[in-house]
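We treat protein structure as text, and this decision shapes the records that our systems exchange. Because each token names a local backbone shape, the row as a whole describes the fold. An entry from our holdings is shown next, in its original layout:
>
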Amino acid sequence: MNSVKKKRPFLRIVGIAILFILVTGATLLYFNFNRLLSKALIKSFESSLAADIYELKFENLRVNLVEGSIRVFDVSVQPRDIPLKNYPYINSSFRLTTKEITLENVEIRTLLKLNRLVLERISITKPFVEVNLNGKRHIILPFKDTVETTETKTTAGKEKLSAFYLKEFALIDASFHTINTHKQREFNSKYFTIRLQDVQISQQPAEYLAFVNNAILSVGEFHGHLKTGSFQKIGFSDFKIGLDSVAVQLTLDSLQYHFRDFTTGLNNLDIQTVDSLFHVTLQSFELSYKEKHLKLKDISFKPNVSHATMQRKYTYQHTEFSGSIGTIDILQLNFDSLIYAQKLVVDEISIDNVRASIYKDKTKPMDSTRYPVYLGQTIGEIKMPLAIKKVNATNVHLENTERKPDGTLATVNISRASLSVKNISTLSSQSGLLMQADAWINNKVHFNTELEFLYNKPQFTFKGRLEQFKLPDLNPLIQAYTPAKINAGIAREISFSGVAEETKASGTMKFLYDSLEVDLQLHEQSKWKSAILAFAANTVLNNSNPVSSTAPPRVVRFEVQRDMNKGFVNVLIKSLLNGLKETMIMSKENRKTYKEEKKATKAENKNK
């Protein structure tokens, strides 16, 4: 019994010693194994061409042999102080730092034996990436030499990799700081995430080939400052891109890519223009390549300064635009044509809830060197080939304000409007640009009009109709362009049609009215005296049309000379006003025509 008791402490001590040796040995083996893996991982990176320019550093490494995973801590990839080889075409660089990189399902034996990293998944969590971009085309990585020989294929024991496969790559919640010195731009983004599945990368002489089965990119926040270009500041949130079956070919001077499907979207886009004059916002943007659909919601384009401040920038009359749009839906957008042929082909654009404002200061002189062209020629000057079948706009509200030469303001409101435009094209077309509109003037006068602009010459046809209304309701429009005011009267019908050529417009008007009272206010408008008094001298203003139940209505012809420094809208308004004036105070030609028609009507009534 005593001998047995004496043996037990001895066995216990031996067991503890053996356990200590095993633990110590396992620990030493583990750390040695980690050291070997660390060394192999470094060698694997250095076997790539990127190692000529960049170096990989990390503090420690942990391996899980059961799962075949490796966790690398305090990692950095940064440009070398002195590159191992000079690549003159490289003009940009990046630097990545992160607390942890996880490598899953690693072929550890291959890594140790061949210094080649073969694995299924890479996950990088919350890294910080700095990117410096220079030159017009940014080149960050070296290309395989096209004249590479057997002697140059291996350098200092390196085995150049020509292909790489990865089942999954994840960059999670990264922060990016990008500086583009060539364009003087700086960007910051947070919560930047990339997920790639089935990544295949091969390196051929002077090119990279890559294929990704599925790619998802998202950015939580983005802010940019631009010293050149149209914008000064830009920001957005919740930006997402999804790609299906992406193939990329990258060379020194070109980038080619193909994909099966593509979706993207963002929220809360906020832009300040470079001169800080305008503020542009967009609530949401959605794009689907497969569905050929693009949708924008709640767009706003508004000035940051007053009209007076804006107008001080211009010597001549300048038209200011601002407003907002509820939604824009672009349907059946041919993305392939746009991407590969730079040709815009769309079936339909639907626009809803438009609020637009136009302001012009007429106290400033006109620019006598400016000659606006009609819409057909404006579209024809677009360099990008385009073909848009139709554009429909609903719930349109337009406020047009002009500061007249005497300093007073004249405002015309167009409300409850719907607009349809068909055949917007820079391609050869037998048809013209057709525009149809239905709206209310100052919410009291309902009208509709139709215009067709020719593409092959500066000409358009027009026709329109105004329904019954009280004539004084038209005063804001009339007084914005003429020294006249209507005190009383009812318009039963106004219908007109005509042709506008490059220098003039002509047509016919039917204006039926009762109890008309007009104040021409000629004592203050010397410019109009010679134009209107010539008719008024020998003509009495008719206060009704027709003048009696037995008399025919006056249907007149009108002709106006175009102001060559103004666009097609001014031609339309001048035609309308001239037709109204001709009906009330007819010219010699119209009086002659009307007398003949009156005589024929009288004879016809006698025969009855």
Observations:
- The chain is about 20% helix and 50% strand.
- The two ends are 153 Å apart (CA to CA).
